[in-house]
Amino acid sequence: MDTQNARIQLESLRTQLLSRLDRIEGHIRSDGEALNQDSEEAAVERENDQVLDGLSLHDREELSQIDHALGRIANGQYQVCSKCGGAITADRLSALPYTTVCTGCA
Fold first, then answer.
1. 98 in a structural domain
2. Which residues, including other chains, have CB under 8 Å from residue 25's CB and lie 6 or more apart?
């Protein structure tokens, strides 16, 4: 995978994640504004918020990995394994564009 295509793919993933995070945060804020709930509805909303918080955390971690990969592209280290210094194959980068390790080190 050439780095130009990787950068485009990573930036697209980044945009998608930021959009999803905005929707999740908007949903959590709007749920907090609902005042007239009985205890059963409130319990369901708390469970939903916990799921959304988990998704948000996962998305933020993925966003961090994407930002790191974009930095690796910028400094010429994108296709270099961070553990052994060997090459990360194009197939691996296509499947997991923000990986930092080769298949052998994974």
1. no
2. 56
Is 68 a member of any domain? yes
pTM to 2 decimal places: 0.72
Residue 44: give the domain boundaries: 3-78
Helix (H, G, I), strand (E, B) or coil at 7: helix
Q: How many domains does the chain have?
A: 1
Spell out the per-residue pLDDT of the chain, length 106, in tens: 689 999 999 999 999 988 888 887 776 656 554 545 566 665 556 666 566 666 677 888 899 999 999 999 999 999 999 999 999 999 999 999 999 999 999 9
CA distance 60 to 62: 5
The verdict on residue 55 lying in a domain is yes
